[in-house]
């Protein structure tokens, strides 16, 4: 126990408070059981440590932070830790990467039954199935999903520029004023181009090569460790998953031909569709359908996008700028909105009512001219021209 207290102080005291993401104020930390899910590398650990430092200080006492793959847990149970922590007056357990502890769900359920005044906040992979865990936590847990940096957060995180979150409806009705506010603080187009390369993950330190190496490590960890554990994919097929990701990146936005993809990977169609669904849950790709309401488990998607533009660059393909633009739009809007493939009505349909066509500064309204509630999101623009809006505006929505 003393070892955990020492590690707690070391972790928390070394946590930088220079920039704290807005999500720290969205999480209801007072609830008895809180889960923070997300892909590897998006900043879950930093957020939890920052909250502890802000609320409880650096020393363990009322709060205790534990990394669940610590060697301590090779000979001690989480349940016994909670008992000792309770006897010492502890009130709030923070369990990082809880999915690395095999019986986490059963023991957490028992802890909150035994010690109803103890709070537990835990983080885990985007793939952990809290609602279907061995112990039913669904009625008690308050779950949050953490994303990578939005374009707005990138401006704050790396450039020191603070701007408010704008709802999509605000952007569509008040684009001139919002663009005026942004342009008064920075040159958004130049910074947007930088964001597409290195802005999504909060660990860029100025070295693009090292940054992309770290993203590749994230991809490998997700495929080799998390997907084999949570999606029950045989380790012998991880190379197939990587091959699929590389193939998709080289063809993004991939208009899906499952037969062609199956032949390329030498897998049957059902297996390919299963892998695609698992890759979406793992936040490696986005699957787009023309009608989200009628999607079935084994239905082929209409288009496939790599999850974010930085991942797309890290995979090493020389993709056209048009691909990166569309990848950016779905990545940003998918956080708070339902995004569908527009098919013959623009590139994307948002929440079943807003049509977006995406392109360069010379993009016209020709394809969506007669459609109500339709807009063009165009690159290389700082101010809107009518319903033709700068594409970076959708990066201000979270």
User: Largest beta sheet, briefly?
Assistant: 5 strands, parallel
Structural class: alpha/beta
Measured on Cα atoms, how large is the radius of gyration? 22 Å
Helical coverage, percent range: 40-55%
Tally of separate domains:
2
Task: Give the strand order, joined by hyphens, for the main sheet.
Answer: 2-3-4-1-5
Q: Low-confidence segments, ≥5 residues, pLDDT <50?
A: none
Strand content: 5-15%
Strand/helix succession: HHEHEHEHEEHHHHHHEHHEEHHEEEEE
Shape: globular
How many helices? The count is 15
Q: What is the overall pLDDT average?
A: 93
Quantity of strands, as a count: 13
Query: What oligomeric state is this?
Result: single chain
**How far is it from the N-terminal to the C-terminal residue, by CA?**
39 Å
Name some characteristics of this structure.
398 residues; alpha/beta; Rossmann fold; 5-stranded parallel β-sheet; 15% strand
């Amino acid at each position: 126990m003393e070892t955990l207290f020492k590690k707690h102080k070391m972790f928390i005291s070394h946590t930088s408070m220079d920039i704290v993401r807005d999500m720290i104020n969205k999480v209801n930390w007072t609830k008895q059981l809180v889960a923070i899910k997300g892909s590897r590398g998006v900043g879950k650990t930093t957020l939890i440590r920052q909250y502890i430092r802000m609320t409880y200080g650096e020393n363990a006492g009322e709060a205790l932070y534990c990394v669940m793959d610590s060697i301590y847990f090779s000979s001690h149970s989480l349940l016994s830790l909670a008992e000792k922590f309770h006897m010492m007056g502890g009130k709030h357990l923070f369990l990082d990467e809880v999915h690395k502890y095999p019986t986490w769900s059963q023991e957490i359920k028992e802890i909150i039954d035994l010690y109803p005044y103890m709070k537990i906040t835990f983080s885990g992979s985007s793939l952990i199935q809290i609602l279907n865990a061995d112990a039913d936590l669904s009625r008690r847990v308050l779950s949050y999903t953490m994303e990578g940096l939005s374009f707005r957060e990138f401006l704050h995180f790396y450039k020191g520029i603070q701007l408010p979150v704008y709802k999509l409806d605000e952007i569509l009705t008040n684009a001139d004023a919002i663009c005026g506010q942004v342009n008064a603080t920075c040159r958004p187009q130049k910074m947007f181009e930088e964001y597409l390369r290195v802005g999504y993950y909060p660990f860029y330190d100025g070295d693009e090569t090292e940054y992309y190496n770290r993203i590749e490590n994230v991809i490998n960890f997700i495929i080799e460790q998390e997907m084999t554990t949570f999606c029950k994919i045989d380790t012998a097929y991880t190379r197939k998953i990587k091959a699929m990701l590389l193939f998709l990146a080289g063809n993004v936005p991939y208009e899906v031909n499952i037969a062609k993809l199956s032949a390329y990977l030498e897998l049957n169609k059902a297996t390919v569709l299963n892998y695609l669904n698992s890759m979406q849950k793992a936040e490696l790709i986005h699957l787009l359908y023309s009608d989200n309401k009628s999607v079935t488990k084994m239905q082929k998607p209409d288009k496939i996008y790599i999850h974010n533009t930085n991942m797309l660059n890290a995979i090493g393909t020389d993709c056209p700028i048009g691909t990166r633009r569309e990848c950016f739009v779905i990545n940003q809007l998918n956080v708070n909105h339902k995004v569908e493939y527009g098919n013959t009505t623009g590139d994307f349909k948002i929440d079943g009512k807003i049509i977006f066509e995406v392109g360069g500064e010379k993009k016209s309204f020709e394809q969506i001219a007669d459609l109500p509630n339709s807009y063009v999101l165009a690159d290389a623009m700082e101010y809107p021209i009518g319903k033709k809006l700068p594409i970076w505006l959708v990066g201000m929505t979270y």
